[in-house]
Amino acid sequence: MTASFSGAAFVYYGKGDVRLEEREVTCGPEDLLVKVLMCARCGTDKTVFAKGHKSVDPYAPVVLGHELVAEVIAVGDNVRTLTEGIGYREGRTLSPEYLDFQPGERVVFQSRVARYRNGLMLIPDPIANLSFRIDGGYAQYMRVSPDLIRSESVLRVPANVSNEAACLVEPAACALESIFATPHATGVDAQGRHQYRAGILPGGLTCVIGSGTVSMIYAALARLEGAREVHIVVRSEQKAKLVRDVLGSWVHPYVSPRLEGRTVAEHVAAEDQIVQELNALTGGGLFDDVIAACADPAAQRLMLKLYAPEGYAVGACFGGTHETVDCADIDTHHYRCAATIGTSGCSTDAMKTVLEWIETGRLSLEGFSDPRHWSFKDDPGEFLTVSGGRKPVLHPWD
Question: Which CATH superfamily is domain 3-168+365-394 in?
């Protein structure tokens, strides 16, 4: 079958240039066609709009948006023949059950069709990227290409998972990816070879820097992974109230001073005061896991100061700053007492894990997104740049 639908889309042309357009989307014989139900805004999309992006601009005009939940509305006649896996499923045969897509099913997407080695995603030179090379979810309709299908990047949403939670599965999986990569030392073997356990330190103290949706997801995952206490550094009493309202009384917000427009020296002095106060709050131990869940370079400098002073702490950076950080002290890293890891996207396995945890009630993402319903009636530039507490979400049919 070949089916075509026409609908609205926010189309990216280049730095600072996103336009509302009517676009026709066609479902070919090896494609799926989906109706986008909700699409959350990734911080990368905000950066792409503000600064342009070397991995996106060559493919413009393109529709951004990869944190989405959609409904299958058309299935190409040859989809069931796409049995040869690529990327995540390289060298494997895709099952008939996976390829049996039906109209009405809800799906989410692993947005990077990557190459893999020993089960680990290779970041450079991906096969394809949804919303970079392939039109994404800031649209009413989206074509799902054979690359996405053959890499098993199309994941079905369980019936009891809400649309709000489903469109946050991808960013939650990105957070989980970095948590699962954190190498806490557990000892040495008989030869002196260091041994590690990946994940949040059970029974340890975790600190999250940031107060947005991703920060709160990190906090929820850290608690789920066994942290004894989770502290979260925010910039106002209003944001402290927000994280308590969303997460509950178990989280410990710490309100830091606002430092916009200050010199580096003033930043560093204020950060040292933050460290002293958090050191007192933790009984002098500071944190076993520190997560910088924002793109501010100063947040990553602060992260380095909040590691447990006796070492073997881990810092996770959500997304790169792509900027230098002045006055960062890396001695803790040099003396192997701490490690910093980052995440760029997520694996399909991590997305499957998040979906399972939501389905079984281990994890809830309800209330983590902005309650405002953004739509195609709104200015695309405003949607892509607005900042505040929770992640903005586009509702294409409002």
Answer: Medium-chain alcohol dehydrogenases, catalytic domain (3.90.180.10)
Which CATH number applies to 175-343: 3.40.50.720, 2.60.40.420, 3.40.630.30, 3.40.1790.10?
A: 3.40.50.720
Q: Sign of torsion, CA 59 177 47 24?
A: positive
Domain ranges of the chain: 3-168+365-394, 175-343
pLDDT digits (tens, 9 = 90+) for 10-60: 999 999 999 999 999 999 999 999 999 999 999 889 989 999 999 999 999
**Which residues pair with residue 316 across a beta bridge?**
291, 341
Chain centroid, CA 2 distance in Å: 34
Unique residue bearing structure tokens 């389905």: 359
pLDDT, tens digit, for every residue of 174-200? 999 989 988 888 999 999 999 999 999
Question: What is the distance in angstroms between the CA of the first residue and the CA of the last residue of the chain?
Answer: 29
pTM: predicted TM-score of the whole model, two decimal places: 0.95
